[in-house]
Design brief:
The chain has helices at about 1-20, 25-30, 35-45, 50-55, 65-85, 95-115, 135-140, 140-150, 155-160, 170-195, 195-225, 245-250, 255-260, 280-300, 305-330, 335-340. It is mainly alpha-helical. It has one domain. It is built from 16 helices and no strands. Helix 1 runs antiparallel to helix 5, helix 5 runs antiparallel to helix 15 and helix 6 (about 95-115) runs antiparallel to helix 10.
Length: about 350
Amino acid sequence: MIQGLMNYGALTTKAKALYGKRLRLADYTRMAALHAPEEVAEYLRGCPAWAAAARRLPPGSYIGRIELERALWQQFRADYLSLCHYLPRRDRALMEFPVLLHEQRIILFALRQLQSGRPFPAPPSTGLGSLNWKALYACTDLDGLIAAADKTIFAPALRRLRPAEGGLPDYTRTEVLLHSVYFSHMYRVIHRNYTGETERVLLRSYGEQIDLMNLMHILRLKAFFPQVRDYLPLLFPFNYRLRPEKIQALCAAPDMAAVLSLLSDTPYAKAFAKADVSQLEDYYSRAFYAFNRRLLTGGPPSVCSAVAYLNLKELELQTLVGVVEAVKYGVPCDLSMARLIGA
């Protein structure tokens, strides 16, 4: 405990201080009642967690969803760098995780754009990592995307996905493979650099993410693609509390009801007790939030505090982007996540 306080006391204090500035439910409610992204940006200028991001958008200039989201990601970058200032050298590889996740999301976004044939808008950049953004904006085919990602951990996987007949790879298989590359990389980092309680907590964090994501995939396939028989290529080849034999039984179940019945003796039974396929992302986000909040607010000083804060910050960013989109298009705003994370 004393060693942890010496090494990570300042880092944990900084993470908790940043978390204390988070948006509250009242903020989300007020923003949801606004009429344009410009008004949301103006409101954020008075919110400590996002004021610097909003100030990057000059009053009177055009502010759309894309412009505002870019500014929000720059604020995420600033928080990330402020935590890295207190980071011991051995933890730097672990703390690359949000950069790697962002690269993965942007690569998948680029693939969707290529498959749709739509113009390629500039995605929000953190300015971190190994992705060649200039090459990414200019890419028009898979070779261009591979070139843009050449220095990332995802490049070898993208090369393996190149179809022999040319064209673009299957999106779902690409998504599964890139996620698997990310998780494999993080597991190597954890096993190489950590032992004891820190290793246990980190393995639980990643293990539960994988279990929940595999469960969501299985339930979606049962609901929307009942004709699919071979599920395993569409799942992540890792497990934590769901052993391989349980995964195989879930895949073999005839329908969603049978899947939920098989979950009754697992730690995830409560989370999926009232599973609605339209709310699977919500179940995942709630479980992810609860774990990281406990880790940040109740755990001892460690690198896990910074990991938990960045996970919570990204959930806040995603919820805020959802509010901006609702305001932009004049549709009712779903504040269910805001009620949870804005407590």
